[in-house]
Amino acid sequence: MPTICQNERFCALVGIVVSLRNMPDNHTPAQRHSNMAAIHSASTTPERKLRHALWRQGFRYRVNDKRLPGRPDIVLPKYRTVIFVHGCFWHGHKDCKYYTIPKTNTEFWVAKVARNQERDQEVWRKLEAKGWNTIIVWECQLKKAKLDETVDRVVEEIIKNGEAYRAAQEERRKAREEYRRERKERKEREQSLLEEVKSL
Ligand SMILES: [Zn+2]
Questions:
Q1: Distance between CA 74 and CA 157 in Å, rounded?
Q2: How far apart are the C-alpha atoms of 151 and 156, rounded to whole Å?
Q3: What is the pTM of this model?
Q4: CA 109 to centroid of ligand 1, rounded, Å
Q5: What are the pLDDT digits (tens) for 141-198?
Q6: Distance (Å) from CA 118 to ligand 1 centroid
Q7: Which residues place a Cβ less than 5 A from the ion ligand 1?
Q8: Positions of CATH 3.40.960.10 in the chain
Q9: C-alpha of residue 74 to centroid of ligand 1, in Å
Q10: 113 CA from centroid of ligand 1 (Å)
Q11: The listed CATH number (3.40.960.10, 3.40.50.300, 2.170.270.10, 3.40.190.10) that belongs to domain 41-176
């Protein structure tokens, strides 16, 4: 399965306790975070690497949000964007050296990966229907040599999604305003007609 630390909350809690004990209170949240990151860097997963890189660039997110389809690894509400970090084997990363079907039980593995891929598609469709943008990051893209390049690409996409989201919000706001204005004008017309009729 994708490597997600199930004890994330616990780790974070331990991190906070340790940080509070050892640090004077003049640390910024970002510094505190990087201290915490150092504390559990022994179990650094690809997902965490991406998360910390985003945090350092100022992005704030929710993790493993159960309220959204597929329980996305990273959720950036402000940018209406979710990120999934996919294991290359389990999700069948095309043309990737980490996706090699085992020689034994081949059919079983092929079917299993295919099911995962179908589920991924389904999740993507559901999220899209709710107006969320989905970014897929493969684990191999978070290996040391490719990390920076991947983070740059993801950041670019997040920002682009955020701009599109705000533009769409602005459109909706304008449409609402227009509707209210028209309704007000209509009422005023009706009112003046009524008054005219009365005065006859
Ligand atoms: Zn891969």
A1: 14
A2: 8
A3: 0.70
A4: 17
A5: 999 999 999 999 999 999 999 999 999 999 999 999 999 999 999 999 999 999 999 9
A6: 18
A7: 88, 93, 96, 98, 138, 140
A8: 41-176
A9: 19
A10: 14
A11: 3.40.960.10
CA torsion sign for 152, 162, 35, 44 is negative
* pLDDT band with cut points at 50, 70 and 90 for residue 200: confident
- Amino acid present at 121: Q
| pLDDT tens-digit series, residues 129-143 | 999 999 999 999 999
Instruction: Give the dihedral of Cα atoms 33, 3, 65, 116; nearest 10 deg.
Output: 160
C-alpha of residue 152 to centroid of ligand 1, in Å = 18
What is the CA(85)–ligand 1 centre distance, in A?
A: 11
- Tell how far the Cα of 1 is from the centroid of ligand 1, in angstroms: 14
Distances, alpha carbon 32 to alpha carbons 39, 46, 50, 52, in Å:
11, 21, 18, 12
Angle at 43 between CA 39 and CA 44, to 5 degrees: 90
Rounded to the nearest angstrom, the distance between the alpha carbon of 143 and the centre of ligand 1 is 10
Give the distance (Å) from ligand 1 centre to CA of residue 46: 12
